[in-house]
Write a structure and sequence with these properties.
The chain folds into two domains: about 170 residues, Bordetella uptake gene, domain 1 (D-Maltodextrin-Binding Protein, domain 2, 3-Layer(aba) Sandwich), CATH 3.40.190.150; about 110 residues, 3-Layer(aba) Sandwich (D-Maltodextrin-Binding Protein, domain 2). The protein is globular. The protein is α/β, with parallel strands linked by helices and about 325 residues long. Helix content is about 45%, strand content about 20%. Strand 5, helix 6 and strand 6 form a beta-alpha-beta unit.
Amino acid sequence: MTASRRIVAGFALAATATLAWADFPDKPVTLVVPFAAGGPTDKIARDLAEALRKPLGQTVVVENAGGAGGTIGAAKVARSAPDGYTLLVHHIGMATAPALYRKLPYKVPEDFEMLGLINEAPSVLIGNNSLPPNNFSELRQWITANGSKVNLANAGLGSASHLCGLMLQSALKSSLTTIPYKGTAPAMTDLIGGQVNLMCEQATNAVPQIEGGKVKVFGVTSSRRLTIAALKDSPTLAEAGLKDFDVQVWHGLYAPKGTSAPVLARLNAALRAALKDPDLIKRQGALGLTVISDERLDPAGHRRFVETEKQRWAKVIKEAGEYAD
């Protein structure tokens, strides 16, 4: 092939690729949730899917691929074709998995393209109604007096409740007996039933139990009080005595590494539009979630944030000595 023909062929290929990108998406987009249906990440993904349909002009479906603390679903997306049609909605576990798992089937952030943060979700420290303490000050004294006799439920290794519990024990300088469950629902059931004492759970899941008077509230984990009715009078744990305590479970959107720049730009633009949707903002707010509107909605800002969170949580996890093979 002559040089001129090679140039013409190159232009033809570039034009074809440009047309393909211009048509993106021309079929449904899948959001993979690395947890079971019905949990907080699943709820967030389904709300996001609805809000993404208009800016993308396509159906957006949610696929649950749970197991191994979210690593199975994340690995599925990392191995998917980098064409923008298979995306990952993941929480803080994206930054903590590298420290929690010795044999992680993907690398963070190397195997993913960051598309932007979605929201932040505060957690709530709750206990069963039979506990003697009625506020955090009393709870702290009770924990000091009882030590490892106090048990703390979580939804499994790498779950939001597990991570929040690690940070809580670090801040209290106390080692509680942690009891992992296979999901939030069974952990919450045993908490309400009195089989376990405490749980540090996302407000998304805790609010219905608080509204029903089924659990006690000892404080919220964010740096500011929440405005939702069920928690508006609940102090932050920082106010209650744990200086600078701030644990937020965030969620982000990811594509496989190697996804083309034009497709990434299209997806980021759609995410930005979705997060301005009044219905989405209202639904997220009702769950105590804050929709992201700062620099972390930019892919570069999202990447910097994940790196910072990796370092922060690696220290906490190392101190706790909790790992999975």
